[in-house]
Each structure stands twice: as structure tokens, then as C-alpha cells.
What does this fold into?
Amino acid sequence: MAQVVRGIASNDPMALALRLTALGLLLRPVGGPRLRPAFLALAAFLLVAPRARYARVGWAALLVLAVARLVADWPLGDNHAYLLAYWCLAVTLAFGDVDPRGALAENGRLLIGLTFAFAILWKAVLSSDFADGTFFRVTILADPRLAGLAPVASGLSPEDLSRWRDWIGGHALASEAPGPVPTRLAAVAGVATAWTLLIEAAAAASFLAPSRWRLARARDALLVVFCATTYAVIPVTGFAWLLLAMGAAQSSPERSAWRAAYVAVFVWVAFAAALHGAVRTPV
Amino acid sequence: MALAQIALALGAQLSPWLGGGFGMFASTDGWGRREVQAVAVRQGLRRTLEPMNDAPGASRRAAALPSDGHLHALARELAVLPSRDEAPLHAIEIRVWGVEFERETLAPRRVLLRALSVPADAL
It folds into this structure.
């Protein structure tokens, strides 16, 4: 953590981004039984050895591991696995550039923008059940990761929640729904749907807009707000930490306050995930 | 990769959550909600198998992306499992189901994503 604090103060976005990437891999190990030890060892080495952290070979090795993980898991790898591979490729390529910091900042910006662009394409256009609120209605009630949130968001008693989960899971003995969708659940799902569409579209537009546009000035604020809110509710730490590392990489060297914000949200996401683990109940 | 994921999701039933197209948390069609059924067909006998128990890895892949390759791989794993039936195996039939939800009642409705019968001589 002392290294991360030094990274904020050093006015070097790349230094902070690389440290956050390695730290995230240490805190949230990835890969199956064969690859995980290699990921952990390499991430630890990159975190404690500055010369290795600033050498292309270390990140190329991490890229090889990330791609091996994708191949071994195909088609079951999730978005984090792909984003990690893209990011390792970006870092590896940056070290071959005459301006590594500039190259990493530019690739970090584009990766964030494209990630949000494809996410919003899925949610707003390709998915048949996101924009109408069905996704959040089902997910709030049935996703174990939201078990702590479900009673508050739905207003249902534990017994009624259990009935709804049986119904959604197709395990209900009765042929009729437990009741109408609770008003509070419909409202919360509606707000969550609208908020997600709004902030992801804004983030995509901001990060993909040319830097001279006024919209581009909102990049850091949008990413910080997105991660602080979304990952407080849905504890997907690995993805959040990658986005925050890329956000730090593209931040302006003169604006250390945003790097402090990225680190604060990094810690907040870890805290929220721990809290979710504490309140999660069997479903 | 992301464009390939969209093509696979729209054309080959890849779960939107997978494949690197950033479709996580965009659809209720996660691969964990999908169901894989398998039946061993023998002379005068159809025996239901339990693919998720007997071949979990291949079943998860078949659920996530029910392509010919993944369904054949699952059929091959199921075909070599010990069986109490003595009649020769004719085929392994596999069905992959998804779930859709009605918005107002959240009633689940099963949707057949893919069905394939793999003859014994192709195993």
C-alpha cells in the first residue's frame, strides 16, 4: 500500500496503474489450479521488483498467462479474463513505444471506452430483457451476489423471497406466481436499469470522444462514480480493479487528486466486497 | 473478439455473459441458467443421463456455447461412461435449454436452444 501511495504522489499515472494491476491480481487471484500459482508469483514479483515492473518481459509473461487462461477456459472465460489480456497487451506494447506513458494512457482510454461501448450495445440494443427492466427484477431476487440487497430492494420477507426464488428457478410446485412483482422491486429495478444505461453510455461517449472535447473532461469523474456505485452493489472486484488501473493510466499527470480517487475507490470496492461476503445468505 | 462474441451469441447461442463481448449483466441468459439434457439411445431403450454430474466440464461448455464441437465432445464423454445396459449404443441425444422470463410475473419459460443426435458411429 505504501507503494501505491507513493504512486499517487509521484505524478506518474503509469506507475500507479501498473501497481494497481499487480495488486489486484494478488488480492483476487485468477486462473485455474495450474495457472493460478504462476499468476500469483508473477503479480507478486511485478509488485515488489521495480525493474521488473518497468520491463516489457514481465508484462509479456503475464500476457502469455492471460491468453493461456482464455484458451484453457474457452468458452467459459468471463469479461475480466479478456480485459486482463487486452490490458497486458497494452502494457507490453507501451514498453516498446518511444513514449510508454503516453501510449499506455491512450490505450487505457480506448480500452475503457470500448468496454463501455460494447456493454451499452448489449444492454440497450442486443439484449431482449435488459432495457425493459426484467433483468434487474430477476437478478435482484435470484442472484446470490445480491442476496444482501434483495430484502431491502424488494421489501419482501425471507419467506416470500424464498418463494420468489423457487418460482424464478422453476422449482415452485404452484403453477401461479407468488404474487404481482412487488412495487418496490419494480421501482428499484427501473431506477437501476435507467442509471446503468445512462452512466455506461456517458462513460463510453466520454472516453471515446477526442480529448479536446468538453465531454472528455468528465472521464475520470464518470469512471470513479461508476465503479464506486456499481461495485458497491455488485461485488465484481477483478473487473472493477482493472477498470480503475486503466483509469489511473489515462489520468492527467498534473491531476493527482483523481489518482487519489482511483485508489480510494479501489479500497472501497474491496471493502464493499468484504461486506457482501459478510451479509450474503444462502439462497 | 467482441464482434466475434456478438456473432456467436446471435448466430450460435453463445451466452451473452461469455466470450469477451462485455455482455455480462446485460441479459438473464447466463450459462448457469441453461440446462443440458442427454439421452442414451439403445435398441428398444432410451436412458436419461446426468451430464452435469457425469461430464461437468463438457456440459458447462455445451451450455455456454452449444456448438457441434461442444455437443460432440459431450456425447463422446457420455458414451464411454459405464452402463448397465447391454444393448449396443445407437446414439446420444443432447438438448440444451435456456430460460426466458415474463416481465410482469417473472414466470420462467424454457426455450430450446439446440438439439443434436450424435450417432454411435460418429462418436
